[in-house]
Here is the input.
Amino acid sequence: MQACSGGYRSAGRAGLLLWALVGCGLPALALPSIGGQQPLPTPNDGEPPPADLPIGEEPDVAGPIVAATGSRAAENAVRQVGDAFGSTIGREVIGIYNQMNVRGFSPIAAGNVRIDGLYFDPVVPPSTRISRTTTIRVGLSALGSPFPAPTGLVDFGFRRPGDQAAASVLVAADEWGTLNAEADGVLPVSDQLSFGFGASVRKESGLDATRENSFGGTLIARWNPAPGLTLIPFASVLYQSLDDHRLTFQTAAEFLPPLLPRRQRFGPDWVNGSGLDANIGMLGDWQVAQGWLLRAGIFRSSRNRERQMTNLVRGLLPDRTGTQRVIVDPRLNFAAVSGEVRLTRQIDEGPRRHQIHLAVRGRSGDRRFGGSDILELGPVQIDTPSQVPEPAFRFGQQQLDDVKQITGGIAYEGRWLGVGEVAAGLQWSDYKKRIDLPSANGLGAGIQATDDRLLLYNISVAANITPALVVYAGTVNGLEESGVAPGNAINRNEALPAIRTRQFDAGLRWALTDQIKLVAGVFDITKPYFNLDAAGRFDVLGDVVNRGVEASIAGPLTKSLSIVAGGVWLWPRVSAPGARPGLVGERPVAAIGQRVEFSADWRPPFAPGLSFDSRIAYRSSETATVSNSVAIPARTIVDVGGRYRFNLAGKNALLRVQLSNLFDVEGFDLRGAGAYGPIPGRLAQAYITVDF
Here is the structure.
């Protein structure tokens, strides 16, 4: 994908301000950065593909039709992303990083999430009904974000209803019996008001035959009550009527379990739950005056569970026997209100551009959890499903925790065309956490308080060495979340305290051709290290430093062939000076030293509308226990697929067929220190999309 800066240079002085306000398809004043890939554009939903785009042809770069309602038949991640560092377009995910793993850490757990660049604290990530694109911003691609974070940013591109009526319908199925249907539409009411809506229904049969049935809906409005002012309220809900809980295996000692059964629902049948997920909120943009933009967003994200269970086989032996434990939770409620107000002042002086950002971000999170009933169901053999009848549950007193954080900041971005860019920011963050601990006699055991205040900073510099070569370096510190204790910990579901983090990184972007970009970088990230201690509590064990090298190359090699390739080489180290020798190893749990991914999309010139794609993903061994005595072996997964774009009753349509894990590789999915599940086997799936 060509960087927006190229178009900026060609705009000429007369169009300089207009280009700045348009911002390469982003909201006004969300200006292109010379440093790296621009975030995937989030145009008004419903904008149709160009009228002169023949059936069977697709855009070669991300543009205003990416993932929009009415043009979903054109979705093609290989041809529409600019690097291999992690992106989502519609149903397709591509890249070496994702929402849960960036440079060895989770941006979602760290709280480094944005919606259209504005701060968002998700209890539940946005669904594809309200967010069609996701961009992982690290290194060069984080330049242009006023307040970056050490673990990188996950930026969800919001779906904004447009001025033209449009609709898209998708129906999908796979060989395991999963059925899925999605429908989205845009309905303009007037020049000032437009609605977007969406619905989905899913009946899932998972890799281990677990069931998940859900349905949901979304409503979005875009209202322009005055020139330069846009308000976008939205509500998105998903109800899970049935959610079987997958079985997790814990070995009796530190060794890899035997190969685990696939396509077997272990049960018992009553080990399931149900609940409601919701994201509601409002975004606003106000062009106050020429060169002034006020942006704001407020969001409420929640998850309610009528009941939730953790299904474990503990003490698993090589002969495939163990004991089953089911942990049953009473009603759980997790909710967070978050948002940001940001005022941006832009000043242009010839080839130089200055932006000053003033921002206030805040969040308030409440969690009710605990009070679980622990059921010991006795000896099991993992190839024989469990048939224990459902007992009566006895719940205890629940635990409450409350987190509040407010952050104020000022940031500066300066850009000089053809020369370079500098960005710097200061933030003051005030963090408070309160935990109301239950006691055995039913009386409150007191309030456990955690307070932290921290001055946060970031600074980065990028320079144009040649017209084709950009180098950069930067540093940032942060006050980040550390996630939630996993299901196999004695403090399961507990929200962990905020942690202080730091990152240094540097790298380059080299335009090999007008359309093929090589991006490479190095990084050094330091954080406290959380994992299971000797008593099974998920807590701080020491510090971890992740040092690594990452690289990406992406673009069309020919008119028919496009590639996206990337890799990360990681050298993580744990320091736990207070631990007994042998209990805490030098590598953190879930550390993977190497990841390499190669994706390609080929359009045979003799068959218009037809394309073939493949993905090869390699990962080295994964550290599986705190002591480092067990590791999951390296593996390579190959996926293949194809697309056929055609006309159906005069409408653009797409048939997509995929075969994942082509060679049916077996292996283990790490679900915590010493906790395992199977990885999915070979799976054939297909869907058809029709645009109206």
Summary: The CA atoms of residues 95 and 389 lie 44 Å apart.
